[in-house]
Model the fold of this input.
Amino acid sequence: MEKKSIDIIKEIFGEEDAESKHTSFYEFGGWRQSRRKREYVEIARDLVKKRGVTGYQGDRDDMGVPLGQRFIEPYYISGTDILCDAEDLHQINNAAIQQMGDDIKRTAISGLDMAHRMLEVRIGATVTPETINRYLEVANHTIVGGAVAQEHMAEINPAMTRDGYVKITTGNEDLTDHIDKQYLIDINMEYPEDQADALKEGVGSSLYQVVRVPTIAVRNADGGITHRWAANQCTLAFITAYALGGGSVLADFSLTSKHMQYVTLGTPTYPRRGPRGRGEPGGIPYAYVGDFCQADAATGDPLRYFLESMALSNFLYLNLWVNGYVIGGIGGVNAGAVIFTNNVLDEFAKHVADWIIERYGGFARAKPSFDVIRDVCHEACFHVLEEYNRYPLLLEHHWGGAIRMFVLSILGGMGPSFATGHSLAGMIGYHYVGGYLMKEAWGRGSFGSQDSVDHLNLAYAASMVPDEGLLPELRGPNISSDSTNAIVMTTSASYSVAAHAARKDAWCLSPVVKVAFSDSKLPFDFKHVRAEIARGTQHEFMPEGDRDPIKPGR
Amino acid sequence: MAEKLNIYPGADRVAERRRTILDKNTKFRELREIPDEDLILLLGHRNPGERYTSVHPPLDELKEPADPIRELIEPTPGARGGDRIRYVQFTDSVYHSPVTPVFRGRMYHIRYRGVDTISYSGRELMEVRERDLELYTKELIETELFDPARTAIRGITVHGSAMRLDEDGLMFDARRRYMYDREKGLVIYTKNQMAIPIDKSIPVGSPRSDEELKSDSIIYGLDTVRCRDAEEVWEVTGKLMEANVKGGFNPGLVER
Done:
């Protein structure tokens, strides 16, 4: 292990010796040692006077466990020099985390080819670059709440919907040359040349529309509204732009434009998962994490891209889905923080990556086999456990089995995928580490029954039966058999992202989704996930979707 | 030919110790004596001398429906008496508590009857009829399975297993259920497992030395036997992983 992460941990603990097994407790001033907890106590004291009901009382020792008997360490966001408290990483306290989720939930992607064919063949309209530009102009009026077909509609204050828009993208450069640039996600502008070429080939000559419904829409409803909002408002734009009328023809066209080429980012979650509409985090396949994340466009380093993707995965599935939808209240913020703080996972991952390069001559060079899976997983797991042995301060920082399992399972998924470029090898390794290695090495699990999921998923690894499994890239929290938990949801993206990063693929699951999230007009910058979240911890991130324009005095 | 039970793979001392822990015939060394009254206070489920709370009449007084399983399985004393189900939970320090949660779970299943248990990273919960619980807990505290400094009885606020040790070598407890009496060299509990103060101090013995704990440790690592050197264990886990994947896909692919 490099020394940087150990130096960071010594710094945040204020200690010189990371190798001592002994320390002192009960002398840190309890809750007062935390800047945020001190702030919260003050805020709550004011609030109780205003609302007349007691609320937060973190200063009370008799409300359960006295807070702060051990040292409460702050966190550096990996890849940045931003230091924050754990509280800053809770999704309710961090506007960047919320916006990241909102930007995913409010994205509606649909193909326009079938709609255009309907216009030309069934209706007899002519579709040209000029009519497409005209349509986009109208759609950017309707999508933010402007009326087109009836005069007596209540319209929406554009300040409330200021971040809504409609753009298009395609790999057909003959067409993009004629599209108004304000409406174009230009693949050439967003990616390095090789990646742009691969993405253009992947997207092909088809034309895709990328709609961002206003953030306030998903904050007022949920991700399920996105498809409907986009479908209704864009169909109205078609009606206006192409002067459409009639009954049955219009019905057929509406069905086509709304639904026939719609790209579902997240399937509706089935009841046992907590039923939610489309586009919610619980229905999103893991491999889309690597398509949402654009760090590969910003850096040619597959490891950096992988780590940024893992951070995104943590915020999407742990903060927003598990903590936000499944649990509520507090939750596993500290546990997931190990994925993107204090450089620890970065250095563990680098060790495994370097080991793979030395052993196999590079990424994606080894032929997938059980021997390779065993080989890489043993190295990854034993290295991490030995570092915990070597540095008790690091082990104290990663004080729970779930915390350590976040690290180990990510490396278990990453290692075989990096070595082979094969996501199934990574997925098997992922569950091998979770099901067997930490448990037999230390005689400890993670949280209760955590490993049962890994055993189940090993048996389902190669299954394509819908009740059991899927291609690794298509798996997500929403596959059935209850074969998931918070750790599996948070870290399973590791094997798919690592496999495609190792192969230097331009995307993981969909070139269209990849391109859709490259748009630099998005409030959340998907090229720099960790830096954006770090800005959120400092209250420097400006989110969308607030109610400011309709608050008193506005 | 009678098969010999392997219990656990490996030829090193950690594996050997794991086999000892998991062998139902092992007679663990008694290192301390905890009076029954103190044990009941530590558990905190009833007062000393108080009768067991029943959730149903004694089985002998019940007319149960015919069931061949009832003929095969002898009820535990707690089940026969109709006791309610109660719990004990132990937290095991990574710094070589004599048992670890996963092996506690396996040992409980092998050694004790009528238990329900679950393994976490630092703790193991056991739920069982109350008088059986007291019987099992007595062995778990009085023998070499318990170290006063590295093992703790905690029903709530259980974390601390991977924290560094305090100045006296004790595992951290945010609820401060126990302290080290330096003069007497004893660990003293002043709260029960739910961290509710009890009106007497209960000594649970002297901590064993680091060397003793390491020599009896069932944890692979730099202090004991390196993980990488436990080759037979990883050979077995590797086989299990491969068999799981192949068997799930097509059972015919699994070697017999």
Observations:
- The mean pLDDT of chain B is 96.
- Chain B has eight helices and seven strands.
